[in-house]
Amino acid sequence: MCAERVLRAVAGYKVFVVCDDEAVAQWATARNAQIVWQTDVGLNNAVRAGVAAARVNKFELAMIVHSDLPLATSFSQLFSDCDLDSLKTSITLVPDRHEDGTNVMILPTSSDFEFTYGRNSFITHQHLAKKCNLALRIIYDQHLSVDIDTAEDLAVAQSLEKNN
Length: 164
Hints:
By secondary structure, the chain is an alpha/beta fold.
């Protein structure tokens, strides 16, 4: 299960799971995640709700990670080449393997950044970062770039998993 793997990969971080399903909430709570109820439809609304919850809980940064990353093992490499002060004035994007979608994002919770997940989100998020005067960090990660949107994505994930 991808979501299970993602939660294991974020061990050590405070985790908020945004959902509108009681079974998902129970599953996530059993794994020490805090639930953010979101009944508005759409990924962008869910991400906004998660970042707002992080802000209300006094976190200066939010890392947005989707539950369909089958090769996620760790996120610490996203922090290895920078300090906290630089993260507070930047946005980190990890694109999908097609450089179309945005699989992982780190941004300051105080930002007015507008999320635009969907087709071409990677390039759109880059433009929006500049509009918000956030320094742009792009990290290409072979494992975090694989998400499951199509049968081809699943085949790529299985192939990479087998070769690791």
